[in-house]
Amino acid sequence: MPRRLVYALIAALVSTGAVVAASQPPEAVREAVRAEIETAMGPVEAGEPAHPAPSAAMFKRIDINQDGVADWRVDFEKAPNPSYFCGTGGCRQRVYVSLPDGRYDLAFDGTVRQFKLRRSKGRPVLDVDFHGSTCGGFGVDPCPRSYGWDVTAGRFLERPAPGGQTFLVGGPSRPVVLPEASLPAPVRAVVAAKAKACAAVGGAYPYVDAYVTDVADLNDDGVRDWVVGGGYDACAFTDAAPDNAPVFSTEVFVSGPSGFASVFNEEATVWGLDLAGGSAAFVTLQGAEDCGLNGKDCQRKRWRWDGAALVSKAPELP
Questions:
Q1: Which residue, among 33, 31, 18, has the nearest Cα to 100 in the 3D structure?
Q2: Residue among 267, 264, 179 nearest 226 (CA)
Q3: For burial by CB atoms within 10 Å, which of 21, 35, 177, 269 has the most?
Q4: Measured distance CA(82)–CA(73) in Å, rounded
Q5: Could you tell me the residue ranges of all domains in the chain?
Q6: What's the pLDDT tens digit per position in 269-289?
Q7: Burial per residue of 108-145, b for 16 or more beta-carbon CB atoms within 10 angstroms, e otherwise
Q8: Beta strand pairing status for 59-62 and 71-75?
């Protein structure tokens, strides 16, 4: 089953969930996890036993939005078939958060080496460590990210990493794939154009794996902005990439009175987000052959909003 259809099925299943006793996860969450297990293991051939059901050990009651209703962590390391969900980047983890109408929303879905929920000033914080490639490095390299629960947004939003690092190489790493239909129209158009370009040369650009990230407000208007692309943004090919594979750019969109507008567009740019000082700054990395490997040996160029555009300062030496 195509991944996009799987995500649609999961969304449909979760949307039908009702609040139940906190001693066990709601049926909609269990069904979403069951669907994921069946998809990972593939179709059952005639005469073979049915795929195993999710084990009770996979589900842990947690409290994220403090609404008096249990939220749920799903640990795929404890699945009956963990090898389908674990690898060098750790194991898959999910967080489902209860909604006022009784449904459950998927608030985190990622493969991580560390998963830790804690409280900071009374608010829930999620600390994770992704595969090093997520931060433009190697598998063994650390890639820590932290997310705080935002009550107004009803979702996890980026914050300084567990060790207090304010510079996030490669951006905040989205905690969950937002529905493609929810993207601002200009952002959605760029994703569609990349998918079309990939299809023209026999490749694919699946949205669930696309470099599309909403980021903390870059122009101080109170609205989150968007970055599309990155240093490793490319088409996916079953075989080797053809010589005419398209080269994509990194593009930044900021909100304004007339909607979202493109304010930055450069080819294959490795970038990061700096959360220092309580505000966000878009940063590009340049200057070394391996630039982007966790920001080592890279010049950093900060881009600030001058009221009309993103403008850069002189690069900061590594």
A1: 18
A2: 264
A3: 269
A4: 16
A5: 3-164, 180-312
A6: 889 999 998 789 999 987 655
A7: bbbbbbebebeeeeeebbbbbbbbbbbbbbeeebbbbb
A8: antiparallel
